[in-house]
Design goal:
Blueprint (H helix, E strand, L loop, with lengths): L8 E5 L4 H12 L3 E6 L2 H9 L6 E5 L7 H11 L6 E4 L14 H29 L3 E5 L12 H20 L6 E6 L7 H5 L12 H12 L7 E3 L2 H13 L1 H17 L1
Parallel strand pairs: 1-2, 1-4, 2-3, 4-5, 5-6, 6-7
Helix pairs in contact: 1-7, 3-4, 4-5
GO cellular component, one term: membrane
Family: Belongs to the short-chain dehydrogenases/reductases (SDR) family.
Protein name: Ketoreductase domain-containing protein
């Protein structure tokens, strides 16, 4: 049974581009009100102008700052908005060997990918469970299934998101809230403008709209899975890595990713 988003309000972080903006368009088309959050307020306002017929609130905020999760929850409460669905999409990666990474950049990455996501989820999960007809999607990555040399912090942060979200899936069963960790592979978004072009390991990238459409289709199932790997090729790769074992997988990933650093 398809999720009924009419009379719902969905909070989307990282909504100014990529998957976040596409989720906003898909959900608006299905009648959901929206709270769109990102640093780039101009882009948020432009996106909101494209979505007539639904109530859209934009909030400019850098979620990589300490305490941003609590600050966002307070800002939404001040506006009297009742959030019934949540898509935690904000995040970024750093590509390169760990010992050469900028320490502040690492801190910001962990704050955004892990701390703020957790704080935001905690702030809204009680009303989401009480509503019982919405969704909670935390955007992880196939990088969360195996350690990734030259993406060490990013992969570790997404492993946290994957484990955390699957646990919430189990805890939320019977409430009506559909919880899922979205695990795309390399996708055509601005992620690589930040992380660096070699961060895809030279693999082909999936269209962002395909990732969003597959996610919406999975959420419409009667019993959505705790996590979704988008794309047959990505599912095969993750299955093969589990069969190969940690040592072989790390060796193969190490060769592939270090080649992209040398380019």
């Amino acid at each position: 049974m398809a999720v009924d988003f009419r009379n719902q309000t969905t909070l989307i972080t990282g909504a100014s581009s990529g998957l976040g903006a596409l989720f906003a368009r898909r959900l608006a088309a299905r009648g959901s009100g929206l709270v769109l959050v990102a640093r780039r307020t101009g882009r948020l306002e432009s996106l909101a102008a494209e979505l007539p017929g639904v109530n859209v609130t934009t909030i400019g905020m850098d979620l990589a700052q300490p305490g941003a999760g609590a600050k966002l929850a307070a800002a939404i409460a001040e506006r009297g908005i009742d959030v019934t669905s949540l898509i935690n999409n904000a995040g970024f990666g750093t590509h390169g060997v760990f010992h050469e990474a900028d320490p502040q950049r690492i801190t910001d990455e962990i704050t955004l990918n892990v701390t703020s996501l957790t704080e935001i989820t905690r702030a809204f999960i009680d009303p989401l469970r009480a509503h019982g007809g919405g969704v909670l999607v935390n955007v992880a990555s196939i990088a969360g299934f195996a350690p990734s040399p030259t993406l060490a912090v990013y992969a570790a942060s997404k492993a946290y998101v994957l484990s955390f979200t699957e646990a919430l899936w189990a805890e939320s069963r019977g409430t009506g809230l559909r919880v899922m960790a979205l695990c795309p592979g390399a996708t055509e978004t601005e992620f690589f403008d930040v992380a660096g072009q070699g961060a895809d390991g030279g693999t082909s990238r999936m269209r962002a709209d395909t990732v969003v459409d597959l996610t919406m289709r999975a959420l419409d199932r009667r019993n959505p899975p705790p996590s979704l790997i988008t794309g047959t090729r990505n599912r095969i790769m993750m299955g093969a890595s589990r069969l190969a074992g940690r040592r072989v997988t790390l060796a193969a990933l190490g060769v592939m990713m270090r080649q992209t650093v040398r380019r």
